[in-house]
Amino acid sequence: MMRLACIFLTAGLLLSAPLAHADDRNLLPKYGSGAKADWQEAADKVFISGMSEDYHGDLKKASADMAARGWQYLSQGDLDGAMRRFNQAWLLNNNNGIALWGMAAVEASRREMDESLKLFAEAEKFVGDQLNFSVDYAKAIGIAGAKHKDEAQLKDAFARFERIHQKAPENTKNLQNWAMTLFSIGKYPEAWQKVKLAETTPNKAELDPRFVAELESHMPRPQD
Question: pTM (2 decimals)?
Fold first, then answer.
């Protein structure tokens, strides 16, 4: 692209702006959703204009590419870099469910579960029942339920795990998430059942050996 600098310019931050203004808002989902200063509004316009020029007016495509870049950062464990890109993707297209999903995943990784679930719920309107999204959403609800000891959330999570399993019985990550949620509330025998199922799936290598070891430290592996 002709204007790669625009891609790496954090939306909401003018190059000429003082560094003191820098990263705080960019690391919050949707830039914190609060009112922006004049310089931030101006920076947004510059960013959007530059991306529109690069993509010949196709801001949905620009947003999709930026969201994809955010997922690359997230896969590398760079939560701040990921949030910056997801925010930029959302700025270009407020209805980009993949960007909202990414924000939700970042917040879940930060254990900001209330914010994560709000974003997952918003993303679901655009993403629907896409399998990987459903797996991530169920996991987040399970984490929140265990964290808050919220029976309604736990019931919701387990129902989602079950529905996903019925749809995709060999999905290793769903079985592991199910097991982790059971483990987090002290249901070790049930957690082992899900781990053993996961160990029969084609992608069993996706199982986290650290989790299996932690489970084994609480309850030896059943032999049956």
Answer: 0.83
